[in-house]
Design a protein that fits this description.
- GO terms for molecular function: peptidase activity.
- InterPro entries: Peptidase_aspartic_dom_sf, Retropepsin-like_bacterial, TPR-like_helical_dom_sf, TPR_rpt, Ycf3.
- Keywords: Hydrolase, Protease, Repeat, Signal, TPR repeat.
- This is Aspartyl protease family protein.
- The chain is of the alpha+beta class and 579 residues long.
- Helices cover 37% and strands 27% of the residues.
- The protein has 19 helices and 24 strands.
- A hairpin with a 2-residue loop joins strand 3 and strand 4.
- Helix 6 packs antiparallel against helix 7 and helix 17 packs antiparallel against helix 18.
């Protein structure tokens, strides 16, 4: 399953009296567009343009099951007994051979990809079989990944861009078939930990065992629940955000940071994700087994870093690169700004991209997202309208506008966009999951169930499958239809993820609709014991109390439900969910 290829590159020399013959050739330069904290690379698969996430934590490149179906790829069984392990479990895989894979403008024949597991942003991921076949430079702050090949450099430092600037370096583990990842040692609260540098993880996360060695547990002061995290496998991982006094990597130290912690099933102590990469320029020398990096400015782990040298003096950050010369360059610049929480700079960059390429809808969609993030709904709507006029069947843009219209209370317009998106989406498209939830939100139960049916069929191993089962259950519960099927879905969702209160809340409404008041009350009490402001559980329990003659208890529940969700009673009445 190897890939051999060479691209025309740029050759440059690192000046050094000791190693006058040290040269580094730039094999390929991969423009990166940040999608939040996901680094996306434009490629082609058999001539069809798609985006893959650059994932340094993936040992091999992959295509998602939905995208493989949409692209019409033929799947072959994976090697016997082979499965892929992620932070949240395992998944079985198939193999697809792409006849022509186009990367950095070069056509590569007969490239194999793994297919399986959960959907990722885009159509899949670029893994270490491509990113790690030589040296690699992750320059996410400037929207670029470079594949590099040094010659005659020995142990010379390869931070070639850092002339006159401080930089850090660490040793990394040697890579082989059993250990394809980029692994180095950092210090957290003064404790040395082994870390996997993983651009496929949007946020950095420390294992619970490693956090405990650094003095932090889930019940420590300042630790807060942060939901769940999912990866390639079928399950999800519960995470918390935790305060750490110090994160140190060689010469760089960041103090008083909040980093996520969770029960990970990996071979190292932590994943260092794109929330670190987005503020650093990082050269991974697989030849030397070393990593070189500089801080380039902006938030690290979602906090503003104050970079200081060993004396405590502030370090001068690099001057801003020359302005882009084309629309794509400005768009990448804007996407980086958004990833660094600078929406104002993002809007300015996207505006430049639109000026240079007014017929390209992608830039309008990007600016709409920046406008929406700053509360400028009218400007966001205007950009989405313009983008849809240019490309009326773009599923993601139609969904974006539907969501905006729903926030503005424009239900009819939102429903029209959802219908257009459902018609344009491929049967196995990942967007079906989102469409199911949105159709439920506008009380279109049958259409919601249709979306979930299509998604569930195409995603047997996805970590969100319990959520899809719950979504289908909820759509039927709201409408009061196919309640036995709804109950089966909810029971399955609860079995697969027993700690999710939303699933129990959904099942409570099904039992209420079926007249099983004792079981419904049991579910509602279980939810409200842990989440006393869950509006539907309050309202449902109020109905049960009213039917049983507990007027005072019902009144208290209805008032609490109204405080949590003022429009819930009107919606419930319209759906026939009444005392």
């Amino acid at each position: 399953m190897g890939v051999r290829w060479m691209l025309a590159g740029v050759l440059f020399t690192i000046a050094s009296p000791a190693l006058a013959d040290c040269t580094v050739s730039r094999i390929a330069e991969l423009p990166v567009t940040m999608q939040a904290l996901r680094p996306m690379v434009d490629v082609k698969i058999n001539g069809s343009p798609v985006r893959l996430m650059a994932d340094s934590g993936a040992f091999y490149s992959g295509i998602t099951p939905g995208s493989a179906a949409t692209l019409g790829l033929r799947l072959e069984p994976g090697p016997p007994g082979m499965y892929v392990k992620g932070i949240n479990g395992t998944a079985s895989i198939s193999v697809a051979t792409v006849k022509t894979f186009t990367l950095a403008g070069v056509d590569l024949p007969n490239v194999q990809f793994l297919v399986g597991g959960s959907e990722t942003p885009g159509s899949g991921m670029l893994g270490q079989n491509i990113l790690g076949f030589a040296d690699v430079e992750y320059d996410l702050p400037h929207g670029m990944i470079r594949l590099m090949k040094p010659q005659g450099c020995g142990r010379m430092d390869l931070a070639y861009w850092a002339t006159g600037r401080p930089y850090s370096e660490i040793d990394i583990a040697s890579r082989d078939a059993r250990n394809p990842h980029t692994i180095g040692t950092i210090e957290l609260n003064g404790v040395k930990l082994r870390a996997t540098f993983d651009t496929g993880a949007s946020t950095t996360v420390v294992s619970l065992a490693a956090a405990a060695r650094a003095g932090i547990r889930t019940d420590s002061p300042g630790v807060q629940p942060a939901g769940v995290m999912r990866g390639f496998g079928r399950g999800v991982m519960r995470v918390w955000t935790a305060p750490f006094a110090s994160f140190k990597l060689d010469q760089e130290e960041i103090r008083n940071v909040r980093i996520q912690i969770g029960q990970m099933d990996i071979d190292t102590d932590m994943l260092i994700g794109s929330d670190f990469f987005i503020a650093h320029r990082i050269y991974v020398s697989n030849a030397q087994h070393r990593m070189f990096l500089t801080y380039e400015g902006g938030p690290v782990f979602n906090v503003t870093a104050h970079y200081q040298d060993s004396s405590g003096a502030a370090v001068q950050l690099p001057a801003r690169d020359a302005e882009p010369t084309d629309a794509d360059g400005y768009a990448r610049q804007g996407a980086v700004a958004m990833a660094q929480h600078d929406a104002k700079a993002a809007i300015a960059a996207f505006t430049q991209a639109i000026a240079k390429a007014p017929a390209e809808p992608r830039y309008l969609v990007q600016r709409a997202g920046a406008y929406a993030a700053t509360g400028q709904g009218a400007q966001a709507a205007a950009d989405l309208d313009a983008a849809i006029r240019l490309k009326p069947d773009d599923v993601d843009t139609l969904i974006d506008r539907a969501e905006l219209r729903l926030r503005e209370g424009r239900k009819a317009g939102a429903l029209a966009d959802l219908g257009a998106a459902a018609q344009a989406a491929a049967p196995a498209a990942d967007e079906r999951f989102q469409l199911g939830g949105l159709f439920s939100e506008v009380d279109q139960s049958a259409r919601a169930v249709e979306q979930y049916d299509l998604w569930i069929k195409a995603h047997p191993d996805d970590a969100r499958r319990p959520g899809a089962l719950n979504g289908r259950c909820w759509a039927r519960a709201l409408a009061g239809t196919d309640l036995e099927a709804a109950l089966s879905d909810c029971n399955s969702a609860v079995r697969q993820r027993p700690g999710d209160l939303a699933f129990v809340d959904s099942r409570g409404l099904v039992e209420l609709r079926m007249g099983n008041l004792d079981k419904a009350l049991q579910d509602y009490d279980a939810v409200l014991a842990k989440e006393p402001r869950m509006a539907w559980s309050l309202y449902g329990r109020g109905i049960i109390r009213q039917r049983r003659g507990d007027a005072a208890g019902a009144k208290a529940d209805f008032e609490a439900a109204a405080a949590a969700a003022p429009r819930l009673a009107d919606r419930a009445n319209a759906l026939g969910i009444v005392p």
